[in-house]
Each structure stands twice: as structure tokens, then as C-alpha cells.
Amino acid sequence: MGTSRLHVVHTTSFRYTRPVTASYNEARMTPLPQPGQTVLDTRLDVQPHTWAYEYRDYWGSAVTAFEVLAPHESLVVTAESRVEVSERPGPRTAGDWATLRSPGLRDTLAEFLSDTATTQAPDEVAALAADAAAGLGPTDAALAICHAVRDEIEYVPGVTAVHTPAGEAWSARKGVCQDMAHLAAGALRSVGIPARYVSGYLHPQRDGEIGRTVVGESHAWVEWWAGEWVAYDPTNRVAVGEQHVALGRGRCYDDVPPLRGIFAGAGTQSLDVEVRITREA
């Protein structure tokens, strides 16, 4: 099983046409240790320097809440992490449909069986998922569903936004990784497989050169439960592995945005986001 050490620098810059009097923000840009992911070090820097508070949210993601209460014309948030990542361990147990349909499990994982406005599977997607899953156990069915959905969607950057409902991306048959993850999650839930949305980073090169810094990506994938949680990247049709750094999990993007906030003042804002990733080993 291959392992990579990735150095990720994620910089978000807000600039305002006039000084704003205050801003209040939450950042979900800190990776946490988990199977297949060892966090060596991580830091979050905010300029102007500000008060901050760290906590875990309802879904288990690491959150840094911060505010700037002095007038400012720009806000720059830099998240830097070094993480060792490898292919996530495969499932040790294979769940069956009887277990997935049991009242106890459906109660425990109810939130990952219920859809949001962005993950609701259109009728065509639900029918596609049912056909793909026919005759298969939950694990094989989940993989078949992800492939069936992905085969119908063309990856086209910029055609949707992070809050675009899955149905709109499906109608256009075009989307980005968030759309693929939303559609896959909705399709999996439609056949009774619990699914959650994962946000993180992706090194764009499977065998990236050591020491070379490249433009990385904020990325999204899914995890489904079939006896245990299994991570899969439907956009790239691969198991989550040494190119992926996970940040947060939830029902959909709205539960795990990298940065969310409001500001007080008359200025309008521009936004610039850059992710740079260096494979160190």
C-alpha cells in the first residue's frame, strides 16, 4: 500500500471595496487523524490577526471560529498542513441488505439516509441506482452506483456552484466534484445505503514528483456504510488513497464548507482561493 507525505497550503483572500467594520467566520480547513491519514502538523493563520476559538462541530469536523472587529480592507486566511496519506483500509466486514434495512441501523444512521436540497436524487437517478444495484450485495452495489452516475456526467469546471442542487447538474449532465459527490450520495441513499459527503484536497498527479509544488484542488468524495465506512472518489473513479486529504464530513457541502462567514459594512468583496500541494515523500 503506497503512502505519500503531502504539504498543503490553502490560501483564501477576501478584498473589500471599502473597509468593513467587522467580520465573523468559521474555517473547516484543519485535517484530523483517521485511518489512512496521519496529521504531522497543521496551522491556521488569519490576517489581520484576530481572536480565534477551536472546536469540533456536530459532524466531527475541526472548526476554527474567528472574528475581526477592527475596520479592514482585506482578510487572508492561510491553512497549512503536512499529512501522511495512504489508501484507506478496505472493509473488514461485508454488510448485507438485512442489516442495512434493520430499524436499529436506520435509526443510528438516519441523517446519512436522509437527503438535503443539494443531494435529493432525481427520479431518473434513483431508477439508475436501482438498476445498478440489482442482484448485488451492498458493497458491490455502492461501487456500481457510483460508476453508473459518474458515467452519465461530464466533468466541466465552472458550470455549477457548490450549492447547485444535484438535480440541476443531472439535467445538464455536467458538473464538478461537488456535483458528483452530491449525486452519488443521493443515489446511494435512494437504495438504502447510508452515505456521507467528504470535503478535502486532491493532489492532481497520482505519481507526483517529490519536491515539486503543484496547483492542487479542493475536492469532494463520498463514504458509504456497508458494514463499515468505505471512502470512494466518484469523480476520478478510484478508492480514496494517497492523493486525498480529508477535512470534514457531513450530509452535503453545506455541512463542511472550508470557510463560511459574514461581514458588516458597505463594501463589496472579491475572493481569491489558491491550493498548492507539494509531495514531500
Characterise this structure.
It contains 6 helices and 16 strands. The chain has helices at residues 97-100, 103-108, 123-133, 138-152, 166-172, 177-190; strands at residues 3-20, 22-30, 37-47, 51-56, 62-68, 72-86, 154-155, 174-175, 195-202, 213-215, 217-225, 229-233, 238-239, 244-250, 259-264, 269-279. Helix 3 (123-133) packs across helix 6 and helix 4 packs across helix 6 (177-190). It starts with a strand and ends with a strand.
Compact overview of the structure:
This protein has 281 residues and is an alpha+beta fold.
Secondary structure category: alpha+beta
Query: Helical segment tally?
Result: 6
pLDDT < 50 stretches: none
> Beta-strand level of the residues, as a percent range?
35-45%
Rounded to the nearest angstrom, the distance between the terminal CA atoms is 14 Å
Largest sheet: 5 strands, antiparallel
Spatial strand arrangement across the major sheet: 3-6-1-16-10
What is the 3D form?
globular
**Total count of strands:** 16
